Amino acid sequence: QVQLVESGGGLVLAGGSLRLSCAASGRTFSTYHMGWFRQAPGKEREFVASVTWSGTSTNYADSVKGRFTISRDNAKNTVYLQMNSLKPEDTAIYYCAAGKVVFATRPSLYSYWGQGTQVTVSS
């Protein structure tokens, strides 16, 4: 079992940056592919980015490609989401998730979820 705790959210001006962290408990973290999702009010949860268990391969939603970077440190049981050039439409609750399906973009394919962290981008 994996428990996930996100941090690093906050309020930022458009064009600014934030780095989200997701700390995992359990010795099996390095065997899971990790993903970041977000959910804005009144909208469905949507895929943002994913990274393979080894950290060597990544996948991004078109809306964040070139602005966001996902990475992981298996020694620290942590996955990161560096967000640059933020836009008001990036405002959402951001969730990290762990799963066994590589490059999964559907929330149902992830087994474990954090509680989320709020990101608000003001114009």
Descriptive overview:
The structure is a single chain. This protein is mainly β and 123 residues long. Helix content is 0%, strand content 50%. The protein contains no helices and eleven strands. The protein has strands spanning 3-7, 10-13, 18-25, 33-39, 46-51, 58-60, 68-73, 78-83, 92-99, 112-113, 117-122. Strands 2, 4, 5, 6, 9, 10 and 11 form a seven-stranded mixed beta sheet that branches.
The string of secondary-structure elements, in order, is EEEEEEEEEEE
Strand content: over 45%
DSSP strand count: 11
Report the principal-axis shape: globular
Report the C-alpha radius of gyration, rounded: 13 Å
Please mark out the parts with pLDDT under 50 across 5 or more consecutive residues, or reply none. Answer: none
Distance between the termini: 40 Å
Q: How would a crystallographer describe the biggest sheet?
A: 7 strands, mixed
- Determine the structural class based on helices, strands and strand pairing: mainly beta
Q: Given the structure, what is the number of helices?
A: 0
Oligomer: single chain
Q: Overall mean pLDDT score?
A: 97
The percent of residues in helical segments reads under 10%
